[in-house]
Specification:
4-stranded mixed sheet; 418 residues; 2 domains; D-Maltodextrin-Binding Protein, domain 2; alpha/beta
């Protein structure tokens, strides 16, 4: 009898616990989002925006940044995946990145933001990438120096290599006459850690200068191991001219901060960089803008403009819906627009954004773009790491004087054919 009573008591207790559990609300797993991005320039402002968005939407957001000359994004993102520390949102740069990670990238077709841009990343009609921004680069100039040296800026909006050579000579003569020994004509870096400046951005002139925006003839040839010798010769002449008038220390061993910092201090007439450097010029007290690169011998009248990188969503993530919501709000909300234009100093890729960049080089990119003066970005459609891993070191040897211009041409030719 005593055993029966004990058994009944135990059963009633278990029933009570079960009943209580059934009445309780299920506990939801906390939402989280890990973003891995490659622009060190916007790390702080993006972190602030992402954390504020997370607080508003009850999501714990973690931002990881790897880029510039201190961290190789392509190497690090691959390590993240191999270590199974996979982000929910990460960045690709055109077909090269897509081809590496296409098995990990979520189809974003049908997202509302896709109707608000013409610059989404798509393959065979399927949308995979959210355009981070519209970016551009030309020869960024210090108007004060050019004016003081007697350079007519307006005359250089359709420019030849010969005209640039005369401009560079004139600026150097102005420096020499006025004892400006610590001033440079062209601030450009080509050494280790800066191969993206040469192997991607400078080489893009070979791929697109002088062509219609949609003309993929040269990049198609490159990917088919074919060389346009005439265009490559013209590119080599332009690189030689830049290296001749570039500061040798910055050119061969300079970091990103050395290159951009010299221009920011007002001590360079030109810098070979894009509008993503705008955040470095908050304390600069001179007017700046863009002129075309003279990649071709003559007739250069546009700068290079495009959507260089894209946020993509990891299809194997447990947080795909949260990731899609983050991207949608970035494109569609006032907070997202404010972040892109006013905080990150970017030119947004979305038509609904009415804000105008207040920073000088982003404003210049928008002005050239609105005038229809844009050459395309094809450098990210080269095979993965071909620009930085193969072409960049060849440029570096040329910049250091360790190979001649003819050897530069022959080595680039061989690299393409291989």
């Amino acid at each position: 009898m005593k055993k029966l009573i004990v058994l009944l008591v135990v059963m009633m207790a278990l029933f009570s616990l079960t009943a209580c559990s059934a009445d309780e609300e299920p506990v939801e797993e906390p939402k989280s989002l890990v973003i891995f991005q490659n622009k060190v320039e916007i790390d702080e402002v993006m972190r602030t925006y992402a954390e504020a968005w997370g607080a508003k939407n009850d999501v714990t957001v973690t931002l990881k940044t790897c880029g510039g000359d201190a961290c190789a994004y392509g190497t690090q993102i691959l390590a993240e995946f191999q270590a199974n520390e996979q982000p929910d949102i990460f960045v690709i740069e055109g077909m090269g990145g897509y081809n590496i990670y296409k098995d990990k990238i979520l189809d974003l077709g049908g997202a509302a933001w896709t109707a608000d841009t013409e610059l989404e990343f798509a393959v065979d009609g399927t949308v995979y990438g959210f355009p981070v921004a519209v970016e551009g680069w030309g020869m960024a100039y210090n108007k004060d120096i050019l004016n003081a040296a007697g350079v007519d800026i307006a005359a250089l909006e359709d420019v030849s290599q010969a005209e640039y050579e005369e401009v560079f000579k004139k600026i150097q003569a102005y420096y020499d006459t006025n004892g400006m020994d610590d001033y440079v004509v062209v601030s450009m870096a080509a050494g280790a850690g800066m191969h993206w400046v040469t192997g991607l951005h400078n080489f893009n002139g070979y791929l697109s200068a002088g062509l219609d925006y949609s003309d993929s003839t040269v990049i198609d040839k490159l990917n088919n191991k074919e060389v346009d010798t005439d265009r490559l010769n013209q590119l080599a002449n332009w690189a030689e001219l830049l290296f001749t008038y570039g500061d040798k220390t910055i050119l061969t061993t300079g970091t990103y901060d050395d290159q951009v910092g010299t221009f920011a201090k007002g001590k360079a007439a030109f810098v070979h960089q894009g509008n993503w450097t705008d955040s470095s010029y908050a304390d600069s007290d001179f007017e700046m803008g863009y002129l075309p690169h003279a990649t071709m011998t003559e007739g250069n009248d546009k700068i290079f403009i495009g959507a260089p990188s894209y946020y993509v969503v990891n299809k194997d993530s447990a947080n795909t819906e949260v990731a899609k919501m983050f991207l949608e709000d970035l494109a569609a909300t006032a907070e997202g627009h404010d972040y892109m234009v006013n905080k990150a100093n970017m030119v947004p890729a979305f038509n609904s954004v009415t804000l105008t960049p207040k920073t000088p080089l982003s404003a210049a990119v928008m002005e050239w773009n609105q005038a229809g003066k844009a050459y395309a970005w094809w450098q990210n459609d080269m095979p993965s790491d071909f620009g930085m891993g193969t072409l960049g070191p060849i440029y570096e040897l040329f910049a250091k004087g360790e190979i001649t211009k003819d050897q530069f041409i022959s080595q680039v030719t061989a690299a393409i054919k291989q």
